[in-house]
Amino acid sequence: MTTRLVCLALVAALGGANLAGAAELSIVVLVPAMADDRLDPARQAIAFWNDRLAELGVETGLSGPAIVVDSPVARSLENYARQVATRAVGLPGGAYEPAPPAALTDLDGDIIVLLSRQDIMSYAWPMPRVSPPRYFVVIRAVRGPYRNDPMVSRHVVAHELGHALGLDHNAEPHTLMCGPCQPLTAEPDATGFLPLTDGDRERLRDLHAPR
Asked: Which residue in 83, 134, 85, 82 sits closest to 108, CA to CA?
């Protein structure tokens, strides 16, 4: 079965934050409801990255995640998510990007994942002017023919977490970090996910090797 992966990534990491160097990165996942179809795929994507990082012999890992259901700060985060999505095509995070709201920065996590209620582009965004570096990962509400497809959701989450770990897009259209992608002819490997490239692995070793 071909993986119907929609490459929805918004590369916001150019010149942005880098989470390299932390032994364990904490993740907070905000979800509208426990029954959300993206929650289990998100857990699977986190487990995928922990397996790959362990295989590479690096110190970095992903903890948790901590799941927050129907958070009272979700509206503020949704507003910021849309603001970033509409601005970010021509504007990487940095000095000219509005600071994230306190509702976001007050959350205790290195990577904040919002399973959004909105049909907007999924992306990984380095929070501007936040120290130590942290990422805001937004996963769109899936619509149309890809609705309720866990294969799509877990690849999208894994792709965006790859950016938060320091990976850029590559030119291989059938890999996890593809950009652009050819989803209709892409097949997962033995891990159940699209593969990493040798270049992806080398970069992860460089970024997350013990200092």
From this structure: 134
CA distance 205 to 211: 11
Confidence of residue 205 (pLDDT cuts 50, 70, 90): very high
Query: What would the pLDDT profile of 67-80 be if each residue is shown by its tens digit?
Result: 999 999 999 999 99
**Which one-letter DSSP state was computed for residue 27?**
E
Q: Which residue has the tokens 């919002």?
A: 114
**CA 194 to chain CA mean position, Å:** 15
What is the predicted pLDDT for the residue at 2?
Answer: 35
User: In terms of DSSP H, where are the helices of the chain?
Assistant: 39-56, 74-87, 102-105, 150-164, 198-208
Which residues lie closer than 8 Å to 130 by C-beta, 6 or more apart? 17, 99, 100, 105
Residues making up the chain, counted from first to last: 211
Paired tokens of 101: 């709201």
Measured CA to CA, the distance from residue 33 to residue 71 in angstroms comes to 10
Domains and CATH numbers, the chain: 24-203 (3.40.390)
Provide the b/e sequence for 122-135 (b: ≥16 CB within 10 Å): bbbbbbbebeebbb
Q: In angstroms, rounded to a whole number, what is the distance separating the alpha carbons of residues 23 and 27?
A: 13
pTM above 0.90, yes or no: no
